[in-house]
Amino acid sequence: MKTLELISRITVYEDRNELPVEWQKLLDFAHTAAQRAYSPYSNFKVGAALLLNNGEVVTGNNQENAAFPSGLCAERTAIFYASSQYPEVPFNKLAITAINPMEKLTKPVSPCGSCRQALLEYEQKFNQHIEVLLAGEEGEVYVLKSISDLLPFSFSKEYLP
């Protein structure tokens, strides 16, 4: 028997003002996207902003549906749009934030498992890490160097025939 240890490193900034200006702008894009979310059922608005290697910023937000499984998260909305419009351009950074109208979010939000798996696919497709910024409406911001830090024991194409 042996024990495996999985480690994810997260850099924590006390607030957005400590971030480089480029990252602050990316979080601003994500916040604007969150404001435009269609979330009549949960009222939880999530925004994602994706910086592509060509300098383009693509945003996405959650899109809900009365038939709940038919909705889509902000992160997948952004990456699927980016991939359809710029199929050969790798992703560089991803910023995610959310708005809760009931109380101000002071902790960073994190992508769901489906989004983590979908994001990892693009890291593997381009063989390039995607840096991730996670934020609430205020307070700490988490920065991870790779999607794999969010999904260290992941399923990948190596398992498929």
Describe the structure.
With 161 residues, the protein is of the alpha+beta class. The protein has one domain: Cytidine Deaminase, domain 2 (3-Layer(aba) Sandwich). Helices cover 25% and strands 22% of the residues. The chain has three helices and six strands; from the N terminus they run βαββαβαββ. A six-stranded mixed sheet has the order 1-6-5-4-2-3, sandwiched between helices. Strand 5 (131-135) and strand 6 form a beta hairpin. It is globular and about 50 Å long. The two termini are 29 Å apart. The relative contact order is 0.20. The model has no long low-confidence stretch (mean pLDDT 95).
* End-to-end C-alpha gap: 29 Å
- Main sheet: strands, sense, barrel: 6 strands, mixed
CATH fold topology? Cytidine Deaminase, domain 2
Mean pLDDT: 95
What can be said about this structure in brief?
It contains three helices and six strands; from the N terminus they run βαββαβαββ.
Write the layout of secondary structure elements.
Layout: E1 10-13, H1 21-35, E2 45-52, E3 57-61, H2 74-85, E4 91-99, H3 113-126, E5 131-135, E6 141-144
List descriptors.
single chain, 161 residues, alpha+beta, Cytidine Deaminase, domain 2, 6-stranded mixed beta sheet, 3 helices
